Amino acid sequence: MSKICQITGRIPRVGNNVSHSNTKTKRMFNPNLQKKKFFLEEENRWVVLKVSAAGMRTINKIGLKEAIKRDQRVGLICEYQEIVKKAFSDGKERQSSAGHIGVHRTQGQW
Asked: Can you tell me the distance from the alpha carbon of 57 to that of 79, in angstroms, rounded to the nearest whole number?
C-alpha cells in the first residue's frame, strides 16, 4: 500500500530523531493519509481516494471534480475511471482498486 496522497502528492519524508544528547537516529515522517469515500454529484457515483488531511481541505475548498481534474494534469491520478468506485450495484458493494498512482517528479520540484 503506497503512502502517497492522491490529491496533494505528499509522500513520506526521511528525517532524524534528535535526543537531548544530540544523538541523531533516522526516522520517517509519513503523511496523514485517510481512505475516504466522496460522492461525485455530477456523475452520481462514489469515489474512494487515499487523501491527506490537507487534501481533504483542498477538496472542501475547490470541489471534488476540480481537484481530480487538477491532479490528472499534474500526473498524480493517471486514469479517472480507475479510482471510481460504484457503490451498491446489484445490491452489494463492490470493491475496486484505488487506482494507479503515477507520480512524476523532477529534480527540485518538491
From this structure: 22
Tell me the one-letter amino acid at 75: G
Q: Give this prediction's pTM.
A: 0.64
Give the pLDDT confidence of 68-85 residue by residue, as tens digits.
888 888 777 765 445 444
Predicted confidence (pLDDT) per residue in 8-41, tens digit: 999 999 999 999 999 999 999 999 999 999 998 8
Cell of 92: 452489494
Compute how many other C-beta atoms are within 10 angstroms of the C-beta atom of residue 87: 13
Q: d(Cα 77, Cα 99) in Å, to the nearest integer?
A: 8
CA separation for the pair 47, 14 (Å, rounded):
31
| Per-residue CA distances from 108 to 43, 85, 94, 105 (Å) | 37, 34, 40, 8
* Count of other CB atoms within 10 angstroms of residue 57: 13
